[in-house]
What does this fold into?
Amino acid sequence: MAWVLVFIAGLLEIAWAIGLKYTEGFTKPLPSVLTVAGMLASFVLLAQAMKTLPVGTGYAVWTGIGAAGTALVGMWLLGEPRDALRLVFLGLIVVGIVGLKATA
It folds into this structure.
């Protein structure tokens, strides 16, 4: 169950990281409220998962999901670069996440 919480927390991290773009420096109320709510929910779920997971592994997986996912969503929604080398390095992040999960 802890890994499910980390995964959901990671998805929420992607949502709030992308949400930061839409807050325009926290000057837009609705995107700002939704982004902060996503942050809080992500942290709460991560904290719950950390009750049973090793802190280094859980945090690294959460961060990796957020970093790789945010980069991919940025490419998809925001027109960020999609060059091959960037995709290779995102793949390495995913390999690292899978490796950490497999060894925990």
Summary: The two ends are 14 Å apart (CA to CA). The first helix runs from residue 2 to 23. The chain has one domain: 2-103.
